[in-house]
Design brief:
By secondary structure, this protein is of the alpha+beta class. Strands 1, 3, 4, 5 and 8 form a five-stranded antiparallel sheet that branches. The longest helix has 17 residues.
Amino acid sequence: MASLLELVNTVLPEIGFPQVDDVVGNTNQTARLALALANREGRSLAKKDWRILIKRNVITTVSSADSYSLPSDFDRFIHDTDWNETASTRLFGPVSDDYWNADLSGLTIVTIEDRWQLRADGVNSRMFIRPMPTSAEALTFFYAANSWCRSAGGQRQSAFAADTDVLLLDNFVFELGLKWRMLQAQKREFQIEIAEYRNELNKSLARDGGMQTLRILGPVGDPDFVGRVPEQGFGS
């Protein structure tokens, strides 16, 4: 993991600029451009599902409360990870607006399955649950966070704010991204650099978090660890 200053000072000499003593607060035009494009590259990379960005959230329901706040660093849901942990059942969602409104209007069959939808509640997005909870239950899901860097003290952030802030993503890919963006902003040729960037980005994403064994018969689902019978000692 490298700091903002280290990342910028790796890229600048490669495109013909001298290294800088600081980036944040520097009035030099090149340093200011590097900071702006470093944050743009970070936001862009954070739209990929890097394992360092994936978190698990637990919402504890309250009787008669049908909407719940999302984590402060929430960016997007990870598909098909939503469960009612208390009831050991899957959640059904996100449901469409027409389904939700029909449900509210009493035009759908009453069921016990939890349904959810994400929509605005005032100025914030919240997670709405039906049927209305009547007790405390644990609803869980995985999500991608927008905090792709951290402070020197360890606080995760969604933008570089100091020279000592540290990138949480792949250093090499980030440097390649900053390099082609700097060249593009200066109206210089960047086709070779962006091609290298895309190639390294794809390889890094493929390796991130490890890789499953490939099968000659094609992809298979996750292994089922439920209901295994031991080879010996059965019934003991």
